[in-house]
Amino acid sequence: MIQMKVSEKEELPAVLPLDKRFTRTYYQEDSFVSNIRRTLPRMIFADIMENDVLPKLNESDKEFLLYYYTKRKDSTGSYYQLKTIPSRIRKLSADRILTEANIDETGKEFLSQFYHFDKEIEQYVLNDQVTEADEIKILQLVKRRDYYVGNVEKSMISAIFERFPEIPKRDTFFANLYIPPTHKFYSPPNLKHISGMQIVEASRQFGIACNHMFGKVPFEDVTFLLLYLNSEFFQYAKMNMPIKLRAKAKEVKFSKSGYWNYSKLAITAYQENQEITKIEMAASILPLKVYKRLKSTQEEVYEIDPRFRILDRFKNNISIRENGRNIVSTIENISNSGFMVRCSGIHPGDLSTEQQLEFFMHFDIVGFVHGTCILLWVKEDDNNEDTFFAGFRFEEISELDLANVKEAINRYGRLIEDREIQ
């Protein structure tokens, strides 16, 4: 019996968490996808492997790939076969396996769903529609668990094959749900099961990642417009067992540049080879310029611009300057036409209301905002006589900087509901 293990000099990682660029998450710990891959071809013609693939690999990748793909030859020609359940098996070999594994009639009937006998080549041939869950059941039945190829290995093989257009590919993709054990929201000590929201969010990220990795959607200058995400749950998800995700591309459309600009994916979550969740999602991928133009036509027009509180981590990211003096302040709220700050030290009322002051702001991802502003009013803090509130109106600001203000509000602003009627 062949022992399936990688040489001792090469240790494989336990998991391959997906980089946050592919899931479009801000923090790496919020990327819940690992071991992503395309379904692997079980058989590759020898001329493709030997002429188009192997010569272009370094020795390490070549050795790794040939550990899992073995060259075979029969009446149809030469090919490389994935070392798992065979794509083709001679009748004598099949009879020997059935005998050694002591498989009864029920087991034989189960296997007959996946193999048919081809009289022309006198071999059992694997049907096309075999899932990874079916593969595991077959390996267990024939007592060949040592032929199982793990999720990490499959992900690494898939990454190699993605570089070669000559390798036949199917738009079926796999991944595993991965939650860092220190995650503050999804890994509390009192959690007793994997929540439905974890599975939905991981599936949504998986769908986005498929668009980037396999649909060649660029990372920059595009945005995803989610059209719908429908979910169905069938059973409880255990904390101590892994979850596998499978996505099938039901429909894709291509941009002029050749990447997917629309995708409809059917995603299934499995645990212990049982379906626990089904999700269908569709999304359009728009160039950022088109998205901004579309968004601008949907903006509300207000008599008075709504004001928004900015997240605490950005409140100090402001500098207001007057004749070389920096007015120490923090952002209290902001709108499309101006902002309010909390000041300490010199009373801002010493400034002329007609004087233009230079200001700078900075927001993660959005970048810098720069322009001039005019003081509108000053009010003393009722609770602290050394602190003042001051309101400023944007005076001179470029279209780009104003667009950055709007983007910062969209990302990091929270409407002051007790002031604005919505």
UniProtKB/TrEMBL annotation:
GO MF annotation list: cyclic-di-GMP binding
One Pfam family this sequence matches: AfsA
Ranges for domain A-factor biosynthesis hotdog: 170-281
Domain PilZ, first and last residues per copy: 314-407
Protein name as annotated: PilZ domain-containing protein
Organism lineage: Bacteria, Pseudomonadati, Spirochaetota, Spirochaetia, Leptospirales
